[in-house]
Amino acid sequence: RPVKDCFIAVLSSHGEDGCVFGADGKPVRLSQIFTYFDNECMENTAKLFFIQACRGGGLDDGVEVDSVDGAEENFSLDLLVPIDTAVMYATAPYAAFTHPCGSVFLQTFCKLLEEDGNRNMELTRLMTRLCHRVAYTFQAKGRDFSGKRQMPCLLSRMTREV
């Protein structure tokens, strides 16, 4: 079934956890951006944000962990995301990689949309496929980054299927 009311934003910039950097190099809090879409006009509109930006300076070795230090601090920031909003981050709180052809995250997303059947897939299923592709098909190369991986992260406050 087609989605009638949907807003999609793609933010591609440098960043840190909780912010992206504007053209002037100054940080812009994501929570501030989200507040612009938490209003009566956007109330019945599904809002999707795709954020291609680093969320920290560390690199992801792909190691499984039981918990992340500081997770409690970040959780409260996630509650500032409006209802009926999904935020797809290029990475968990680590550095995000780019390829000479562009963002690994955004390039993979575009390739998924070009494949048969994926355009009609429910959002969370499509985002799960995106996470899988980035996590399992990309591995950084080079002296400093060899073997490092990137794992996208979906935060959803959706109350309906999109």
From TrEMBL:
Q: Its GO biological process terms?
A: proteolysis
The cross-references to InterPro entries, in alphabetical order and at most eight, read: Caspase-like_dom_sf, Caspase-related_regulators, Pept_C14_caspase, Pept_C14_p10, Pept_C14_p20, Pept_C14A
Per UniProt, residues of the Caspase family p20 domain are 1-56
Q: Which domain of life is it from?
A: Eukaryota
Caspase family p10 domain boundaries: 102-162
User: What GO molecular function terms would the record report?
Assistant: cysteine-type endopeptidase activity
For this protein, the record's Pfam families field holds: Peptidase_C14
Q: Which family does it belong to?
A: Belongs to the peptidase C14A family.
- Name the record gives this protein: Caspase 3, apoptosis-related cysteine peptidase b
Q: Which organism is it from?
A: Periophthalmus magnuspinnatus
Q: What is the lineage of its organism?
A: Eukaryota, Metazoa, Chordata, Craniata, Vertebrata
